[in-house]
Structures are given as structure tokens and as C-alpha cells.
Amino acid sequence: MGDGLDGRRVLVFGASGNVGYGAAQAFLAAGAQVIAPTRSPASAEALRAHFDGAIEPVIGDISDPNGAASLADAVAERGPIHHAFVSLGPWWQEGPLVRQTPDEWLRVRRMMLDGHVHAAMLFIPMLASAGGGSYTVVTGMGAHHYVPGTSLLFAAVGGVLSLSKVLRSEHADDDVRVNELLISARVERTARPGVVEAVRLGEFAASIARDEALRGEVLTFDGSAR
Ligand SMILES: NC(=O)c1ccc[n+]([C@@H]2O[C@H](COP(=O)([O-])OP(=O)(O)OC[C@H]3O[C@@H](n4cnc5c(N)ncnc54)[C@H](OP(=O)(O)O)[C@@H]3O)[C@@H](O)[C@H]2O)c1
């Protein structure tokens, strides 16, 4: 399609979920090659089948230091990357903090905060060494509102929001354009009343990646196009 993403290699976290799935669809439609980390061989197989072999899954757990390192090796072996879109989930709302356990905190924190820290540590340098590109951190409106029962998730998301802010300032003047995509709509693979189809969000994400003037921004997706 020759719109700036044609032939570019894009790393998309979360392609087996809702948000990353829409991003993978939109980047593929724009002519990009999509590399999709997932923790599970079954998800990798499902992604290959679903996207008719057009997507390259890589297996690894970004929340674990060793898993993250082997994921980075697997991505590097396949060649340079030009854009990264980092969406990690799932939603968590398991009740009051006083009913939670330290082990559950560790699990939720690893999934959300450690995953984002490791991804930035490993893949921003990879983008820089390929000559620069975009790095998009996905967050949600929920992080700015009080929602009962979400303590562990929101404690970790608070760290992701701070991380995003610091990364956006640390890379304000170099070749890696770090932006945050803040989702304020409900997004699922298929549209239904009150729910936006994930590919619309994906098109918004692709527009951030291709816009070379965009860096250090927080872009809110409310279901409308950019
Ligand atoms: N969907 C919405 O309406 C919405 C709204 C606002 C904000 N958001 C934000 O968007 C993000 C994603 O939401 P979602 O609805 O797409 O979640 P989801 O459907 O539950 O998908 C979560 C994805 O994260 C991946 N993932 C989690 N931990 C991972 C790890 N350690 N290593 C590699 N991949 C990992 C999963 O991959 P595997 O399971 O294959 O490993 C899965 O593809 C979340 O941060 C959420 O807060 C979503």
C-alpha cells in the first residue's frame, strides 16, 4: 500500500488478545511485516492460522527476565524491527486489596509493570540500532479513575504511566519516537453496541507509527480516527 509502513517490520505485543489483535490486523493491512510475541505455543499456532501465515509469532514471556532475554534474541535473529507496539493484559479486578496475597501482587506486577519495563529496555535499543522508529506504550483511561477491586492492577499501571512519561522525555530528541496510546473506549475483536472493533484502534496505532512528527505524546483513542 506504500503508506510509510509498507515492508516495515513491526513488533506487536498482545496480538492474541483484543488490542494487539487489532494492531496486527491494521499493520498487516498497511503492508508491514508483523512479529508477535506470545507466551504460548498454542496461541502462536492460532495466530499463524488466523493470519494465514502472514504474522510471525515468537514465543516468550516478557514479564520474566530470562523469557524477555530469549524473546529479544528470537526477535533479533529474524532481523531489524522498525516499530514496536506494546499492549499487555489482561484486565484484573479481583476485589479488595485486603483479600489479595503477595504472590498475586507479584504475578500482576510482573505481567503489567515488569513486562513494560523489560520491553522498553530490550526493544528501544533494537529500534535505535535499526535507525529509529516508533515505540508505543498502551495504557487505559482506567488508570486515571478510581475503580474498586483493581488495586493490584492499578498499582502496577501507575508504574507503567510513570515509565511512559520518563521514556517519552528520555527519547525526546533521538531517533526512537516514544508515544503513549491511552484507550478510553471498550475495544474487542468484534464490534457490538458500546464496543469498538479492535481494527479501528489498530488503524489509530498505525497512524501513530507512520507520523514521523509525533513523539513524546499521549494520544487518546475514544473510538474515533486520527
Ligand atoms: N480492551 C479494552 O477495551 C481496553 C481498554 C482500555 C485499555 N486497555 C489496555 O490494553 C491492554 C490490552 O488489553 P486487551 O483487552 O487486549 O487484553 P487481552 O485481550 O487480555 O490481551 C492481553 C495480551 O497480552 C499478552 N501478554 C500478557 N502477558 C504477556 C507476557 N508476559 N509476554 C507476552 N505477552 C503477554 C497476551 O499474550 P499471550 O496470552 O498470548 O501470551 C495477550 O495477547 C491492557 O493494558 C489494557 O489495560 C484495553
Q: What does this protein structure show overall?
A:
The structure is a single chain. With 226 residues, the protein is α/β, with parallel strands linked by helices. Strand 5, helix 5 (151-170) and strand 6 form a beta-alpha-beta unit. The strands form two sheets. The protein has a seven-stranded parallel β-sheet with strand order 3-2-1-4-5-6-9, with helices on both faces. It has a two-stranded parallel ribbon with strand order 7-8. The mean pLDDT is 96. The chain is built from six helices and nine strands. The chain has helices at 19-29, 41-50, 65-77, 102-129, 151-170, 198-210, and strands at residues 9-12, 33-38, 55-59, 83-86, 133-140, 176-183, 187-188, 196-197, 218-221. Helix 3 (65-77) packs parallel to helix 4 (102-129). The chain has a single domain (9-221), classed as 3-Layer(aba) Sandwich (Rossmann fold), CATH 3.40.50. The protein binds NADP nicotinamide-adenine-dinucleotide phosphate (NAP).
